Amino acid sequence: MSQEVRNLEPKQLWNKFADLNAVPRPSKKEERVIAFMMDFGKKLGLETINDEVGNVIIKKPASAGMENRKTIVMQSHLDMVHQKNNDTVFDFDTQGIEMYVDGDWVRAKGTTLGADNGLGVATIMAILESKDIKHPAIEALFTIDEETGMTGAMGLKGGLLSGDILLNLDTEEDDEIDIGCAGGVDVTATRQYNEEDVPEDSVGYTITVKGLNGGHSGMDIDKGLGNANKIMNRLLFDGFENFGLQIAEINGGSLRNAIPRESVAKVIIAGIYDEAFVFDMQEVIKDIKAEFKTTEPKLTIEIVKSDLPSKVMDLGVQEGLLRAVYAAHNGVYRMSADMENLVETSNNIARIIVKDGEISIQNLTRSSVESSKFDLANALRSAFELFGCEVTFAGSYPGWTPNVKSEILDVLVPIYEKQNGSKPHVVACHAGLECGILGTNYPDMDMISFGPTIKGAHSPDERASISSAQKYWKFVMEILENIPMKN
User: Fold this and answer.
1) For 11-28, how does the pLDDT look when each residue is reduced to its tens digit (9 = 90+)?
2) How deeply is 355 buried, as exposed, middle or buried, from its count of CB atoms within 10 A (0-12, 13-18, 19+)?
């Protein structure tokens, strides 16, 4: 299937993407892709650096006639989000992504595609390898761990780069030019609970929520998509309130930056309520599916009898858990007052695990305003602390403040207009681009972000537009030829 992708135009881009996608590259396990990039740079005879946190920097001198242009940093991240459909058998640690062409789209078989941010990486690789593309001096920066903490960008020290302009290739709509982004913080609530024996005459059930779209917890947070953890909590709350349902286990969601698509809970109910419980649940399910019929047409909720668990959660802690998750904010918290249609602040209740006396509730809170980010984080903290959780904030990173007077923005906009006959959308995005973090050690660097159209990032529905990639490649080529002169 990769050969079908390799035959696409522009071949330089798609061949490098296929090479990259053959290398497993989960976040925090980037050893193989780091080695791959180091080998790539060295084989080209270019200065290749692996910094102390794992980022790879490859430097290429200007092509003939471009020596008097400003040095640019071309930046993308090496890691990718690993998500797969429940019925897909795939080992992200050992297998390369299996791609195929579907009309105007490149997709993966039941998994994320890795176009986020693999197409950006492949773009830079193709330019580094080329002998006929005109470009100024390039410092290619390949960061690690963007998807689960941005530790690569955070760990990049000042002085390693000398570029004046940074081109970040991690935007996912080809008619957008990003000049700002949201920061984020991980909010985690944990506590222990006592387990109790299962009462006599109980009946066991497994409740499954699946079939949701999922998606990027920043870019897709305003689309009204279902959150499997919130939907599951609603079912459990109703069962507890009306029939004394008790929880044995919950396993919901996966990664903080992915809207949760699935959740599974093992519960018990008193045998005398068996028939009434099932009837009531079907009514609740009908209501939920009606609410989400437009945004989540494939939502499936199953309630099936199962073996009795050996232990269940004590009712006092269980009530606190269900009420806290109900109270905890999920989704858009505040829209920007300064930029139209921009989500300013949001939260994703990403992962809920209840098992063996331990509770873990994992959130990702985002905002382009630091004070608003921590306002929402403290609201979550309050909800969870009220039922006895220990709440920690970790991995906080800053947003990227928009610069409407950017010199490189003045280069990109007229090129886009000339090539496409329309104006690009100059925006800030509700996602965690690395520009804000990189700017802390390189405050004078002029930064911009753009990229080809990618849909469904962070979900198995991720797909990259072939026609958009062609449009984007043409855009990149002309940008390189028009980098401003050195002062």
Assistant:
1) 999 999 999 999 999 999
2) middle
Q: Is 146 a catalytic residue?
A: yes
Write down the catalytic residue from 145, 146, 147, 174.
146
Which residue in 79, 164, 170, 186 is the catalytic one? 79
Mean pLDDT (whole number) for 180-205: 96
Q: Which domains does the chain have, with CATH numbers?
A: 2-182+399-481 (3.40.630.10), 185-397 (3.30.70.360)
Angle at 450 between CA 365 and CA 223, to 5 degrees: 45
Q: What residues have CB less than 8 Å from 461, skipping those under 6 apart?
A: 213, 214, 215, 455
How far is residue 75 CA from its own chain's centroid? 17
410 is catalytic: no
Residues 242, 248, 254, 256, CA torsion sign: positive
299-355 tens-digit pLDDT: 999 999 999 999 999 999 999 999 999 999 999 999 988 788 889 999 999 999 999
Per-residue pLDDT band at 1 (split at 50, 70, 90): low
Report field, pTM of the whole predicted structure over 0.85: no
Question: Residues in the chain, how many?
Answer: 487
